Amino acid sequence: MALSKPDAPKTVSGLPVIAQHYLLCGTKDCEKNCQFYCNPCHRPMCEQCRDEHQMSTEANSHEVVPYKQRKIQLPVEKCKDHPNKDIDILCEDCQVPVCSKCATQNHQKHTLKDLETIYSEKFTLCLENIKDIHQVFIPNSQDVQRDIKENAKDIKETMDNVRNMMKTETESLKCLLETVTLDNIEQVNKMEESLMENLQIQDKTYQDYISYLEDLVKKLNGYLSSTKLHDNPLIFSHADQLKTKPMPETVKPVPPVFTAGRHSKEDVNKLLGTVTVQDTKPENRKIKPMKTASTQYNIINSNSLYLIGFLFLLILLVSGLNIYDHTWKQIKENWKKSDMKPTLSLSSSVSKVREYTVQGVHNVHHISLNKSDRVWGSDWNCSLVQTDLLGNLLQKIQPSDNFGFRGYHTVTQDGDLIYTDRENKVINRITQDNTLTEFIKTGYWKPLSIYSSHINGDILVGMIKDGEAKVTRYNKRGEEIQNIQIDINGWTLYDYPHYITENINGDICTSDFIKDAVVVVDKSGQHRFSYTGQGSKFIPYGICTDLLGHIMVADPFSDTVHLLDQDGQFLSLLLPAHDENTGSPCGLCVDEENNLHVGQRNTNKVTVYKYLHS
């Protein structure tokens, strides 16, 4: 509650009231809440004081408006030429602020405008601009900056891969060259062996021929030395016996000739491969539309408040006005006292907004939203379909795993669908252009439930293996960064985490089918609490959270939805138990308009409820 009744700080429609928990009426001794504002008097007032004010004769023509529609009060500054008059008029011809007397005396026939109206409009534009800067431009710029860093990391990995592939190609070519060279040398060796063998035969032929000549010489010498005539070989031998056999004919060997290869750098490049730049036009980075999740909170942080003050002073300086120190101090004090909280709160009753049918499934065990008019739904037979809110079937997938009683699919920040394949132990991704890829392999663990974080894009996966269970966190690239399995005392946290989600404070919330409990750990993996229902049988199925940190969990066996705060305190049964209209709730999710979508176990209908109000 406010301790004093200073002027309310400046606001615009759609921006937060940067002040106390609530505003007090400006009437003396009135402690009621401020609801209205008298623009001429610049006075906040409650409904009763407004009625009394408008009944008075001097104020019956005053413009009294709802507080958020009021005019921003112009800072008071006296005219230098007429100290009793306030500066409240802008002469557009001269572009100077003046008082009413100056306007009458010196600015006749000039275009005059109400300075307070101009000031209020510019102030409103300034606040809107600040809102856009903090809620759109800065977050989008930070997203792009993170994307650039990821691109740099991806490029580094890509170039490392290129270098490694080059080295591999070179080593492969070296091995090939060595093989070819060895084959060629072996062929040369065989040629040499054959030629040498031939030469050895020729050598042996002449060795035998020389031996024959030597023997022939000895024989002929014997003929010459013989002294007998009647058997002298020279007389009685045949003439052919005295002839010498001709020399055997041989051929010279023909040695092989080596022809050197002809090659160039281009030839080597063709063998090793080359690096080229793709002839593809670079895509523009995606920038989110002029709307972010933070607008749902309708809050501005403390840094924004001081920026508002700075721009507030800047507007006054540009307009040629001065502001007194005590006004600035008063504004800062008001900001310090402000308790900024989301304007949304729980409604006293839950109202049905609409109902739609998910074509192509028997029932709706799990829901994933990617756009306000698109929904993915799955049933007990693991049929996975995309439909619009009019019930038109847009796409259907039949994963290999046929046991669909769990939250096995989710939509990423980029709008891609990712889903678990328990039997093949993988997580698949389907991009918006319908390209299917195997995204993550989970080793020996069977992935059950999955959720893509709206905070940082991390992927949370509930898994089981041989009686064990855990939750694993992956980054957006599918790299494992965290495993959560036991608490600080060594007790196992999970038995069968078949649905999983994340709260706004980073808590990981899972529905455990075997434990019959909602198990919640903080982002570091430390156990915070477990919720086991309200005394009767409690079997948690679909689970989701909203922008206020509420945890909602479906219990199809009691036909209701349990509503908890982010610390695990039970708040209410959000839907009436055993109401025939609820249809045994099973799958849950919250859309961008803060409505709760409830998929039914007995039909293929989804009912949308409004349970928050602003």
TrEMBL record:
GO molecular function, one term: ubiquitin protein ligase activity
UniProt keyword Transcription regulation, yes or no: no
CDD domains: Bbox2
Regions that span the bilayer: 305-324
Gene Ontology annotations of biological process type: protein monoubiquitination
Coiled-coil features, chain-numbered ranges: 145-202
Domain B box-type: 20-67, 74-115
Cited SMART domains: BBOX
Pfam families from the UniProt entry: zf-B_box
Signal peptide feature range: none
Keywords: Coiled coil, Membrane, Metal-binding, Transmembrane, Transmembrane helix, Zinc, Zinc-finger
UniProt name for this protein: B box-type domain-containing protein
Native organism: Magallana gigas
